[in-house]
From TrEMBL:
Domain (Pirin N-terminal): residue spans on this chain: 15-128
Annotated ranges, domain Quercetin 2,3-dioxygenase C-terminal cupin: 155-240
Region (Disordered): 1-22
Family indicated by similarity: Belongs to the pirin family.
CDD domains in alphabetical order: cupin_Yhhw_C (cd20311), cupin_Yhhw_N (cd02910)
Species for this entry: Roseofilum halophilum BLCC-M91
Designated name of the protein: Pirin family protein
UniProt cross-references to InterPro entries, sorted A to Z: Pirin, Pirin_N_dom, Quercetinase_C, RmlC-like_jellyroll, RmlC_Cupin_sf
Amino acid sequence: MVNASLTTPQVTVRKSSERGQANHGWLRSNHTFSFANYYDPKYQEFRHLLVINEDRIQGGSGFGTHPHRDMEIISYVIEGGLEHKDSMGNGSVIRPGDVQIMSAGTGVTHSEYNHSQQDWGHFLQIWILPNQKGLNPGYQQEYFSPESKHNQLRLLVSPDGEQGSVVIHQDAKLFASVLDPEIKLTYEFAPERYGWIQMIRGKLSVNGTVLATGDGAAIAHTQTLNLQAQESSEFLLFDLA
């Protein structure tokens, strides 16, 4: 796990180039945390955040039907469309702006394919451990407009669905933002909370530490987060117990 045991404020950078990599031809993936055949004892999880995979899927390809259980799985599409089908009867195409969460609970099977036959798709797959095992499986999908994320933090995921966010079975929140150059934002953590920032594109200063495209950062023992875009930037912010 990422070291969060010290009591001094920490912004611990996970460089994009240092992530695990997998190239299966049809799938190119970068793993922030240990996943499948990639293992790094320093990066197994952060709090309840278990997986952040940045996946690129070739046109006409995808993940065939496979099972999950006792996991909250979030998909955030960056480019293209992701075609989803599952054993609960859901079928949809997830596009940029959409946020999908699948609560695997007691067990679910699903498939994910690139909706395009020609173009590569690009998305983040995020796994968070639920607050209890054996939940009933569930599915949600909501669209969040570019305007709702422009120069502000937009809540996408929360335990109680506030502000129209999708619901997660964990004490966790997920925000997204798209900042113009030089725009500043501030975020206040409650006591004993932790954060993770995942860069999608651009360059962002986080309490003076600069993150670039694909970088991540663990935030510990920090109350105030000062964010400033050094160029047009898109990122996710996790608020974790």
